[in-house]
């Protein structure tokens, strides 16, 4: 999973994670290209007629012998009118028969060969050059291939640019003794490989080629894409090659800017719906991009939509996406009402339910509906999909069962009498055809057991345990048992959620590859070690968690990032803070200064940012250090201090109803005779109807302080 080997144990708990990403060198390939002349020899051809010599010369210079083009070597005594020709640039393996074949119909009377230009073999020269280069830097790789061509080539790979530059400066033009004084030529060749999605590269090829054209005027630069070895490979390595670090850095930055695209936003908010990661959503995005000639990429890992194309066309697609979200939000997300209290529900359980649902679905999607003077049952409404509603109902049923068990713990005899007929989760009688009994012997409603498995997704849910004996049963559900109850895709999804929950619970131990579209994980380090992603081959700085920043320390890189400064300014302006445990950015709308991170479930003090393991520790800290959970001993004004009459109504309308947020422009209340999921719109009065405000049954959230204000101010 995610490029790692994952071991699971009983209860679908993750036992071990071994990322495949391994430590390597730099993501820049630092080579020195070495070129030298291979040995050659000359031959003297004698002719009886000057005309034959001239005709043979024309045939020879138009031919190629063992990969080389023969050429006339002028001398003080020889010219085209003489009876002999001195021919040079001949491979040392050239023989008389080869020369006569090249002369065709004008054969020489005699052929005499001279000595090779130097006697050293290819391997001897290659080894000599490698040894000399090694005196100025560590050669970590040497590749040379003998050929029949005039020039021989070899490549030396170094670990640092400084060493490679020193080698070039010292030995370029060096007269090698083994070459009898002939020079060797050295040049620096730097290569950076960037993995690019194949479909994206096809769309951006023209833009990337333009970068090559723009920078070639400054010196050597080449940008080459390598064909994938198999048809199933999603990434294509894009190689940027140059002899200049500065030019290479320019080209790399330009390519990365193009590859980053434009993140679609609506105002300051990033545009995203989970719908965009479904096959239907991906099809919609592709069709929208085709219509406007823009490439649209849905990144489900980052939860962003990236746009590639001309600025004007990108703006059109961005506007269309914002409109799509506005127009379809209510069709994708419905309002689902769930009953809360019953006669067995202990006092205070509503708070527990509300807080758990907020942690799962977000405060903007959960609203508490208090019972009115009509003595209706309290409800909580969830804004989301039908799957979200099912999950919310499962949470309520589970907490309901916990509350009933806790309330009846004192009546152990009654519990003993009913434990064989009631579901361990919901405490309801189980029909005979719906009974499921794990090895520990407790009774489950089959749907409750599967729901426990299907909705387990937080670190606290694993390992999965039996909930029997008032949740005191310590039996862990085995993997074979889970496999026997769940369908194959449900079982695989359970393992995937357990793995994701494990990653969330260990945010400092694992990070995702920064390459767009790659979901491989690696283990961070503190020493800046470079790891290579096994999926897309990106070299990653395991401290900064970005593509390796060649030539800069982690500190230098962070100081060079302008976006970091902008992000810090945004956090300061909005009051957002980073979770002290996992680093996730958190914004607090209201409430006390105890905050629980929705990502890693860690607890923190909003006043000073200190992290805690338990919520009780935060409250004790707030009281002793900061003088109270809200401020200096008192609840702040946003909780209703000093509000009265219409002031409280305005506060309730703006804060509890989302201040006109899509889908919540009206207050909702359950109809007196409605079914569980039926609601009626009671509306919010216009300004001209202010005299009727007292009759409007606004929905209030049961958050504690608001609950206490209901009697005093409502």
TrEMBL record:
Top-level lineage group: Eukaryota
Alphabetic keyword roster: Metal-binding, Repeat, Transferase, Ubl conjugation pathway, Zinc, Zinc-finger
Keyword DNA-binding: no
Acidic residues composition-biased segments: 684-696
GO molecular function: ubiquitin binding; ubiquitin-protein transferase activity; zinc ion binding
One Gene Ontology cellular component: ubiquitin ligase complex
Domain (C2H2-type): residue spans on this chain: 603-628
Annotated region described as Disordered, given as residue ranges: 684-704
One of the protein's GO biological processes: proteasome-mediated ubiquitin-dependent protein catabolic process
Record protein name field: RING-type domain-containing protein
């Amino acid at each position: 999973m995610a490029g790692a080997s994952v071991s699971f144990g009983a209860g679908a708990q993750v036992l071990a994670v071994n990322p495949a990403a391994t430590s390597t060198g730099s993501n820049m390939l630092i080579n020195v290209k070495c070129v030298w002349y291979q040995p050659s020899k000359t031959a003297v051809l004698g002719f009886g007629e000057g005309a034959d010599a001239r005709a043979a010369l024309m045939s020879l210079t138009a031919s190629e012998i063992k990969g080389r083009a023969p050429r006339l070597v002028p001398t003080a005594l020889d010219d085209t009118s003489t009876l002999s020709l001195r021919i040079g640039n001949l491979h040392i393996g050239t023989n008389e028969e080869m020369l006569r074949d090249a002369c065709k119909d004008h054969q020489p009377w005699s052929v005499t060969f001279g000595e090779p230009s130097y006697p050293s073999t290819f391997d001897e020269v290659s080894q000599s050059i490698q040894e000399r280069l090694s005196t100025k830097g560590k050669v970590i790789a040497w590749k040379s291939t003998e050929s029949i061509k005039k020039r021989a080539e070899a490549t030396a790979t170094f670990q640092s640019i400084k060493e490679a530059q020193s080698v070039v400066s010292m030995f370029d033009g060096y007269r090698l003794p083994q070459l009898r004084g002939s020079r060797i030529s050295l040049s620096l060749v730097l290569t950076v490989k960037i993995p690019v999605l194949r479909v994206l590269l096809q769309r951006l090829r023209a833009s990337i080629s333009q970068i090559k054209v723009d920078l070639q005027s400054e010196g050597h630069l080449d940008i080459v894409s390598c064909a994938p070895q198999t048809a199933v490979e999603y990434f294509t390595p894009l190689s940027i090659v140059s002899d200049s670090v500065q030019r290479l850095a320019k080209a790399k930055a330009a390519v990365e800017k193009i590859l980053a695209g434009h993140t679609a936003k609506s105002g300051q908010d990033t545009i995203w719906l989970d719908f965009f990661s479904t096959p239907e959503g991906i099809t919609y995005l592709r069709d929208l991009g085709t219509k406007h000639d823009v490439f649209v990429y849905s990144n489900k890992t980052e939860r962003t939509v990236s746009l590639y194309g001309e600025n004007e066309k990108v703006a059109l697609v961005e506007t269309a996406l914002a409109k799509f979200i506005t127009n379809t939000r209510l069709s994708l997300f419905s309002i689902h009402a769930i009953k809360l209290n019953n006669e067995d529900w202990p006092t205070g359980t509503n708070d527990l339910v509300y807080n758990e649902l907020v942690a799962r679905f977000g405060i903007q999607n959960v609203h508490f509906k208090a019972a009115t003077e009509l003595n209706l049952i309290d409800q909580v409404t969830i804004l989301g999909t039908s799957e979200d509603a099912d999950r919310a109902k499962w949470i309520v049923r589970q907490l309901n069962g916990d509350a009933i068990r806790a309330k009846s713990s004192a009546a152990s005899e009654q519990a003993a009498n009913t434990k064989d007929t009631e579901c361990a989760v919901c405490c309801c009688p189980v029909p005979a055809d719906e009974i499921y009994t794990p090895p520990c012997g407790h009774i489950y409603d089959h749907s409750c057991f599967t729901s426990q498995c299907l909705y387990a997704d937080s670190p606290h849910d694993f390992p999965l345990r039996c909930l029997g004996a008032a949740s005191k049963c310590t039996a862990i559900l085995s993997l074979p048992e889970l496999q026997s109850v769940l369908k194959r895709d449900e079982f695989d999804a359970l393992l995937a959620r357990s793995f994701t929950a494990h990653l969330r619970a260990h945010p400092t131990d694992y990070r995702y590859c920064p390459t767009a579209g790659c979901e491989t994980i690696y283990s961070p380090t503190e020493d800046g070690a470079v790891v290579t992603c096994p999926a897309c081959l990106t070299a990653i700085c395991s401290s900064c968690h970005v593509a390796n920043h060649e030539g800069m320390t982690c500190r230098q890189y962070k100081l060079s990032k302008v976006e970091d400064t902008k992000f810090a300014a945004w956090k300061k302006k909005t009051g957002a803070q980073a979770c002290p445990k996992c680093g996730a950015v958190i914004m607090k709308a209201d409430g006390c200064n105890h905050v629980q991170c929705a990502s890693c479930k860690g607890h923190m003090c909003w006043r000073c940012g200190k992290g805690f393991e338990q919520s009780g520790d935060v409250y004790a800290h707030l009281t002793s250090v900061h003088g109270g959970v809200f401020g200096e001993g008192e609840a702040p004004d946003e909780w209703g201090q000093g509000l009265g009459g219409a002031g409280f109504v305005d506060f309730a309308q703006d804060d509890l109803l989302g201040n006109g947020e899509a889908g919540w422009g009206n207050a909702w209340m359950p109809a007196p005779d409605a079914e569980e999921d039926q609601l009626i719109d009671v509306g919010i009065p216009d300004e001209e109807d202010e005299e009727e405000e007292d009759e409007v049954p606004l929905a209030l959230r049961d958050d504690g302080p608001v609950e206490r204000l209901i009697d005093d101010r409502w």
